[in-house]
Amino acid sequence: MSKSEVEQAHAVIVEQMKSHRLVPVIVLDREDDAAPLADALIAGGLPVAEVTMRTSAALASMREISKYPEVLLGAGTVLTADQVDMAVEAGAGYIICPGMHRSVIERCLELGVMVIPGAITPSDIALAMDYGLSHVKFFPAEAFGGAKTLKAMAAPYQDMKFVPTGGIHAGNVSDYLAISSVTACGGSWMVDRSLVNAGKFDEIQTLVSEAVQLVKLG
């Protein structure tokens, strides 16, 4: 793709994240759970998924979810350039990693794939800017001071946008979304791993719907 095509593709992803304000962070232990989970996300009004590459079922699950074109599918916990290739092949449209993994960032730049690396210091943000990135993931958000810290750290970097993740739940998500530089928040409370493993997709749909309403009201 040309530079303009890459920029346009990234802009579409950002607009979708900005529209939904939430990125469900999903751990899937079984490929068979991917389709009913995607159905629950769509029915709940939140067709966004960050499937973490923490399990052996992650790639196959992404392939299943990628069959739903309305779902904004990304891969999380991506640690190596090889994992970038595997995730993109499985249908991931964007890549999220827990830290400033240079090999991941550079491979994504080569492929023209949007990458959101983890950042917890001004130096991390500066490195992301050197790479020309528009977004970083403030992670783990609550462990590093929460919304108050993010607001203070983001202040000097007006052009950088954030997707805070880690310890965010229904009780504190509004604090993060109130920060102007936050595009969306990552969270797992509405797609809890134990609920997925128990096959409680109706309950997940309810939690997703409640999360969507909370963001609208907040």
From TrEMBL:
Picking any one GO molecular function of the record gives:
lyase activity
- Keyword entries, A-Z: Carbohydrate metabolism, Lyase
Kindly give the CDD domains that the UniProt entry links to this protein. KDPG_aldolase (cd00452)
- The leader peptide range reads none
Pathway this chain belongs to: Carbohydrate acid metabolism
* Superkingdom of the source species: Bacteria
Pfam families attached to this UniProt entry:
Aldolase (PF01081)
Q: Which SUPFAM superfamilies match?
A: Aldolase
This protein's record includes keyword Thylakoid: no
Subunit structure, briefly? Homotrimer.
Q: Which PANTHER family match?
A: 2-DEHYDRO-3-DEOXY-6-PHOSPHOGALACTONATE ALDOLASE-RELATED, 2-KETO-3-DEOXY-6-PHOSPHOGLUCONATE ALDOLASE
Instruction: Give the family from UniProt.
Output: Belongs to the KHG/KDPG aldolase family.
Output this protein's name: 2-dehydro-3-deoxy-phosphogluconate aldolase
